[in-house]
Amino acid sequence: MTPDLECIDLTKRFGDTTAVKEVSFSVPPGSFFSILGPSGCGKTTIMRMIAGFLQPTSGDILIKGKSVLDVAPNKRPVNMVFQHLALFPMMNVADNIGYGLRRAGLPKAEITRKVGEVLDRIGLPGIGHRRVDELSGGQKQRVAIARCMVLEPDVLLLDEPLGALDLKLRERMKIELKALQADFDTTFVYITHDQSEALVMSDQIAVMNNGRFEQMGTARDLYYRPQTPFVAGFVGDSNRWSGRVERAEGDTLELRTENGLLIRGQAHGRALAPGSSAEIFVRPEAVRLSRNEGDLSAFDNRMSCRVTSLLFNAAASRVLVRDAESDGEIEVSLPQSGEFDGLSRGDEVHIGWSGDQANCFPAGAG
Amino acid sequence: MREGTRIGFILLVTPLLLWLTLLIVIPHIDMLLISLRERVGVGEYQFSAANYLTFLQEPLYLWTFLRTAVMSVTATLITLLVAFPVAYYIAKMAKGRVKSLLFLLCLVPFWVSELVRTFGWMILLRETGIVSSLLQYLGLVDGPVEMLYNDAAIMTGLVYTSMLFMVVPLITTLGSLDDAVIEAGYDLGGSGPSILREIIIPHAMPGIVSGCIVVFMLSLGNYLTPTMLGGKDSLWFTELIYSQFIVRFNWELGAAFGFVLLFLSSFIVWAMLRLTGQTLEKTMG
Questions:
Q1: pLDDT tens digit string along B118-132?
Q2: Is B199 part of the contact surface with chain A (CB cutoff 8 Å)?
Q3: Distance of residue B16 Cα from the nearest chain A Cα, in angstroms
Q4: Which of B215, B123, B85 lies closest to B163 in space, CA to CA?
Q5: Out of A75, A88, A148, whose CB is closest to B199?
Q6: In CATH terms, is domain B72-228+280-284 a member of 1.10.10.10?
Q7: The whole model's pTM is what?
Q8: Do A360 and A257 form a contact (C-beta atoms < 8 A)?
Q9: Is the pLDDT of residue B5 over 60?
Q10: Minimal Cα–Cα distance from B162 to chain A, Å?
Q11: Among A13, A270, A336, B60, which residue has the fewest nearby CB atoms (within 10 Å)?
């Protein structure tokens, strides 16, 4: 099946700086593809090149198998939901949605019918006569999507459209966006710096840094099997150590950190010979906390620690513990099962994690 | 505290009220009274509408009046056409220092008085002026060309004098238009002209209308430019008023002319607002 969107060795230079370096990817029809990266990583540049507002320095963009480099933005079969939505404030909702249809020269009756249909689909029937500034944030969001979807584009681009919404609404819109995508059965390309938006909604995620794709894969891949230290650090939280490999048995490693801690970890196929320096990432939620040393016998990394502080943040609460041996601080997720309700600063606890959960990378890999 | 606020309010409002009553309301009432009296003998006056009848009965007055109105409207439209691309470039396309520099360049001519600026045009356009000499030097014309003292010269002067007052409100309104809105227009299939018509102009409408009102008022009430660039026969309504007051010493007729002009400008501004569906609050606020 021809991918809906394909970028081949896409490069964009602005003067001396290269914003996008040889990025290649393809998005199968009907999927939700996200580009996740910190601000300034070049993700907006990619999006603007796909939409046609920027001309790539080199490389090609194919939509449904055809190169669109010579196609002007107003003729491309892609539409874009802008960061601040860019609804036309001088028009009402129906005129906003009908704008593209009017430009395509459709008869009036058909425009009215299509606008009505798409308003039904986004669950806002009968608001066509309203002014844009009378809508709530979530309604504006849906109108902006409807304005694009009514044109039945091959690919819908979304440029951090949830950024301006408050937290609760953002959570709801994530689910709604995913549902709309399934409903319209259109390919969505979504760019964001918010990992939870990307993880929740996407079929495929590309993590971008410094103009390059670091890794492309499903949300689970990125979270459990990061391929670069950047991805390990950017997606989810991690405890991070630098150390030296002491022993290697296949992919199973034993490493000594700079402050003398012995950690068992996994190389997951990366070349890490004994003696080489490495970076070790362990997620706080992969670490098991216990008051009783015996509970942790299944783990190959075990330590006795003292609680140095409690970071309460509802379901995402953490404990900072300092291990007796190396005096390093480790962040551990605090289970909310009631077991640790009485935990307080200075308490002695035991922690342990499985070596499989400790991702090791050659140092200086990125 | 309340007493303090009250005093502050009175202090702030007093200059405004003084200005309004002393310089606007009282003179206008007096002018109205003057325009409505007729001189019947030495120092003897009676109430009558004779001055307004004179205005209506004398074709030259009516003709000058109409000409002034049409020329002012034309000057306003030309100013809009010239200023819009300039303002669009400054507001949307120029960036950073270039933007401030261009804006400054629009402002620079206004650092000298209108009189000097108009003399500048006379130096350029007169028979022995720069343009005429250049044309002769290039061999395009045989003898000196007089480019002053015609309607085109008046129009040029009016547009030049009014440019800034059109450019500033346009830059302000165009600057408030989010670039993404224009891009969204292109993205959804709009072409340049359709985006201009459906997105940019509707957005800039308050700026267009307020700029037009100011330019129209300035042109209508302009005395210097038509007199200097149009010469003796320029037939501008403000010249008629001036000559009634100063040359003929007929204050009664001059005052009547003044009121006719006030009604004309108010009517045209009102009509313009109605025509474009704008309100004064929306344009000025």
A1: 888 888 888 888 888
A2: yes
A3: 36
A4: B215
A5: A88
A6: no
A7: 0.79
A8: no
A9: yes
A10: 28
A11: B60
CB of A122 closer than 8 Å to CB of A142: yes
**What is the predicted pLDDT for the residue at A365?**
54
Q: Which residues pair with A61 in a beta bridge?
A: A7
- Those residues whose C-beta lies under 8 Å from the C-beta of residue A207, and which sit 6 or more positions away, are A36, A37, A213, A214, A215, A216, A222, A230, A231, A234, A235
Mean pLDDT of the B198-207 span: 91
Q: Hey, is A257 helix, strand or coil? A: strand
- Mean pLDDT of all residues in B179-199: 90
CA distances from residue A61 to A52, A76, A189, A346 in whole angstroms, order as listed: 10, 11, 14, 58
| Mean model confidence pLDDT for chain B | 87
**φ/ψ (deg, to 5) at A18:** -100, 115
- The question of ipTM being above 0.85 is answered as no
SS3 content of chain A, % helix, strand, coil (to 5): 25, 35, 35
Tell me, what DSSP letter sits at residue A131? B
pLDDT in tens, A270-301: 888 888 888 889 998 888 888 888 888 888 88
For each of the domains in chain A, give its residue range(s) and CATH number, in order of start.
Answer: 5-230 (3.40.50.300), 237-362 (2.40.50.140)
DSSP code string of A218-239? -HHHHHHS-SSHHHHHHSS--E
pLDDT-derived band at A204 (thresholds 50, 70, 90) equals very high
Residue type at B259?
F
B201 touches chain A (CB under 8 A): no
